[in-house]
């Protein structure tokens, strides 16, 4: 069949865009008409349960500019533009005060964002390692791949993927699923998949459920012609949509009496998004793409390393998964949702420039992007936190790795904003976001105050999560117990505690003249130590998330958020399955009934009864305070106040050396670089009436002990000033400097503590896979101290690291910034009786 004139014109116009280029490259002309094609933001009318009582705008004609995404080589060229008139739907989310986080792109995602299920599958080359017995090794190690990740030669092996893993069968529509592929070969299907029919280049399958109602689905390429390798696999939902009703999936054409039926099989390339997914996302004013983009633990540096449209799959492990920017912008345009966009922590300037350029030239100009450099830069669970610290140390922003990390995050964020401003010709058209830790306003203050970062920021973002009393949760027996802890004023991260932290951050935001927004938030019921779905207390968490009282909790936090003066609240998250890692989604899967989804219901109710109450032009117009007015938020050390409190050793003596509340060793005293896995550590002391118990854990990749002086090798130094003299010199009588060598058995002593030479201080060394631990107990009588509650002592700890023999390559300290500390450099320790 020949292409119609209008289709030909459409293809010609869109040929300049990366998204359209991808569509055109894979287009089946005889099956596509102009009416079936969705251009950015060109969806038809839809309805929303949350917005029935709101006044909707009528359809308007608007011009969408679509440009070619630039590669690294295109930095000097100006992309050409082409305008296409498209119809916009009613702005269903224009007045919504809530946003929503997307999910990671992977095979366990219960939000089912795409019509093509293969988009979220685990890449072939990531299925080499075997997992559980009922989940076989799908891919052979000898398989060869092309640049996009498709197997090009099996070499006698097989290549497989999981495209669904442990998701409720109810999340997927009933019916026959179409599997299309190019090339020659054969696909086998595993787990909860039944083959209905096979044809050349096309299989028909059905999905079945396990006894528990969940399912896992996988496929294997078992035969492939090396000359025409089997590739370009698509796994398509059954049915399609009716033209003009993009938020509703229908089984077949009989349900489209008044409009044209567009099957997923024929139009998947242009429909792209699952109607159920669009229907869920349409009610939110902002879509935060951080999870979908794969920013978390993403090592990308250059623009060429970004997720691309032609990649075999967008799923994968952390660091490899992520939907392309084109898809993120496309979803925002279709739903008229303001996109919240993040870039990887190591992205270079050109990456940021090209990213901003694409958004500027392809996002609906009526939309306002929220832009954020990386995600949770302060979170030590993420590799980007370590990156901040390394870069901060490298640029000599501070000796303390933690402080250096906070400062680098501030510095790089400002540079990030400045690149966007050059592309946009100012900052009026986007929102500059920087994030803080919801329970640490002191850190947020440092991040904003450092070198006047706040003057380049529009919004401080935090994540107000309710529920963190792990010990209490483990002792709970009923869902009622869980709700008691969630609302008990004394319980950690209870509703009232979280509201108190919001108040502190709102005051801080006011002091800096910025808006307070939530980049994530909601319930946070999780026990990270659990590994099994049914392990206690997980079933209680799941029950609480399904309980009507959870809706009341969400209603309260939303209302308190507004009443305290904060602005946008971006909930976490799009539908997700409940598992050992939490129950984070507003629904448990994309098709879950609203009546069984109290968090989603509460969110829709709040949207329906509250219009967006802030305006960014007014917020940006607020005059920022002077530097002196916010200087109080920069850290100051008071040597006359205790740095830490040490607690008594109680219970089983085997646990006296357990690191329960350790102090981090972050201050680089000597050396040019810092590495969390090669030169870092933590320490702790406990006490009883006879002994001081000292423990230190050192992270060190390689042991070196080849010098006469233990300070030149891997070792730990422990300084004690029993009378807390704060002296600027060592008195050589009651100042103590113990040195514990990694290969030693008895402590040696520093030159300034001659009295200590007579002491006999044995210690134990435990070698670990990632370093070593030192355990020593020191008699109080040897220190000339009678231990007592409220006693004050001076202490410090230094670790030495040698990697190449000879003298140590680096020294890292706790409180001191002097490589050879004296009592005035030590931190003050207060002895506690509890």
Automatic annotation (TrEMBL):
Signal peptide: none annotated. Pfam families: CBM9_1. It comes from the Bacteria. GO terms for biological process: carbohydrate catabolic process. InterPro entries: Carb-bd_dom_fam9 (IPR010502). GO terms for molecular function: carbohydrate binding; hydrolase activity, hydrolyzing O-glycosyl compounds. Residues 663-830 form the Carbohydrate-binding domain. This is Carbohydrate binding protein with CBM9 domain. It comes from Cocleimonas flava.
């Amino acid at each position: 069949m020949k292409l119609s004139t209008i289709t030909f014109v459409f293809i010609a116009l869109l040929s300049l865009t990366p998204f359209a280029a991808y569509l055109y490259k894979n287009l089946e002309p005889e099956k596509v008409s102009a009416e079936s094609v969705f251009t950015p933001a060109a969806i038809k009318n839809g309805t929303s349960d949350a917005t029935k009582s709101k006044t909707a705008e009528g359809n308007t004609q608007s011009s969408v500019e679509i440009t070619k995404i630039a590669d690294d080589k295109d930095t000097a060229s100006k992309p050409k533009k082409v305008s296409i008139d498209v119809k916009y739907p009613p702005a269903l989310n224009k007045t919504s005060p809530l946003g929503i986080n997307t999910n990671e792109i992977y095979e366990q995602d219960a939000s089912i964002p795409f019509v093509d299920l293969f988009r979220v599958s685990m890449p072939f080359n990531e299925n080499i390692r075997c997992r559980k017995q009922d989940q076989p090794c799908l891919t052979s190690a000898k398989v060869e791949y092309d640049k996009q990740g498709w197997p090009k030669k099996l070499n006698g092996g097989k290549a497989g993927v999981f495209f669904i893993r442990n998701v409720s069968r109810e999340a997927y529509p009933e019916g026959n699923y179409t599997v299309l592929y190019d090339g020659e070969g054969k696909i086998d299907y595993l787990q909860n998949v039944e083959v209905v029919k096979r044809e050349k280049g096309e299989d028909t399958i059905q999905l079945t459920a396990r006894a528990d109602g969940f399912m896992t689905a996988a496929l294997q390429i078992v035969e492939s012609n090396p000359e025409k390798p089997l590739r370009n696999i698509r796994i398509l939902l059954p049915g399609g949509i009716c033209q003009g009703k993009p938020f509703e999936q229908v089984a077949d054409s009989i349900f489209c009496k008044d409009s044209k039926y567009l099957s997923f099989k024929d139009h998947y390339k242009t429909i792209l998004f699952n109607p159920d997914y669009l229907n869920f996302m349409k009610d939110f004013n902002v879509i935060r793409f951080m999870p979908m983009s794969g920013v978390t633990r993403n090592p990308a540096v250059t623009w060429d390393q970004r997720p691309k449209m032609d990649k075999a799959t967008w799923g994968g492990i952390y660091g490899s998964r992520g939907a392309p920017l084109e898809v993120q912008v496309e979803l925002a345009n279709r739903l008229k949702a303001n996109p919240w966009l993040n870039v990887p922590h190591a992205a270079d300037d050109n990456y940021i420039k090209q990213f901003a350029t694409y958004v500027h030239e392809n996002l609906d100009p009526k939309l306002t992007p929220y832009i954020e450099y990386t995600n949770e830069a302060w979170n030590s669970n993420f590799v980007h936190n370590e990156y901040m610290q390394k870069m901060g140390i490298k640029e000599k922003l501070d000796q303390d790795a933690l402080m250096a990390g906070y400062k680098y995050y501030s510095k790089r964020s400002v540079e990030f904003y400045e690149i966007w401003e050059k592309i946009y010709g100012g900052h009026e058209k986007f929102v500059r976001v920087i994030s803080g830790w919801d329970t640490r306003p002191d850190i947020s203050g440092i991040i904003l105050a450092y070198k006047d970062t706040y003057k380049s920021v529009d919004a401080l973002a935090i994540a107000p999560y309710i529920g963190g009393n792990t010990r209490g949760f483990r002792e709970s027996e009923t869902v009622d117990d869980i709700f008691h802890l969630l609302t008990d004023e004394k319980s950690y991260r209870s509703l009232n505690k979280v509201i108190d932290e919001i108040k502190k951050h709102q005051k801080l935001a006011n002091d800096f003249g910025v808006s307070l927004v939530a980049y994530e938030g909601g319930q946070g019921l999780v026990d990270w130590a659990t590994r099994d779905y049914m392990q206690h207390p997980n079933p209680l968490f799941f029950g609480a998330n399904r309980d009507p009282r959870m809706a009341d909790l969400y209603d309260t936090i939303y209302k308190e958020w507004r009443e305290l003066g904060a602005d946008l609240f971006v909930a976490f998250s799009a539908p997700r399955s409940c598992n050992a890692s939490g129950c984070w989604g507003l629904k448990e899967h994309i098709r879950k009934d609203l009546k069984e989804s109290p968090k989603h219901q509460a969110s829709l109710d709040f949207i329906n009864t509250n219009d967006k109450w802030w305006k960014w032009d007014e917020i940006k117009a607020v005059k920022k305070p002077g530097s002196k007015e916010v200087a109080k938020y920069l850290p100051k050390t008071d040597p006359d106040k205790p740095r830490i409190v040490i607690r008594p050793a109680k219970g089983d003596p085997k646990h006296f050396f357990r690191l329960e509340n350790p102090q981090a060793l972050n201050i680089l005293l000597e050396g040019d670089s810092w590495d969390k896995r090669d030169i870092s550590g933590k320490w702790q002391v406990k006490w009883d009436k006879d002994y001081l118990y000292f423990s230190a854990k050192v992270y060190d990749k390689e042991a070196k002990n080849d010098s006469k002086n233990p300070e030149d090798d891997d070792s730990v130094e422990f300084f004690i000033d029993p009378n807390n003299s704060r002296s600027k010199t060592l008195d050589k009588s009651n100042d103590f400097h113990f040195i514990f060598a990694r290969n030693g058995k008895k402590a040696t002593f520093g030159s300034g503590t001659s009295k200590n030479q007579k002491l006999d201080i044995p210690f134990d060394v435990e070698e670990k896979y990632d370093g070593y631990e030192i355990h020593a107990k020191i008699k109080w009588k040897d220190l000339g101290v009678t231990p007592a509650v409220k006693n004050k002592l001076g202490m410090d700890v230094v670790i030495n690291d040698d990697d190449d023999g000879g003298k140590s390559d680096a020294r890292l300290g706790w409180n001191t910034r002097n490589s050879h500390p004296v009592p005035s450099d030590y931190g003050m320790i207060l002895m506690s009786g509890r």
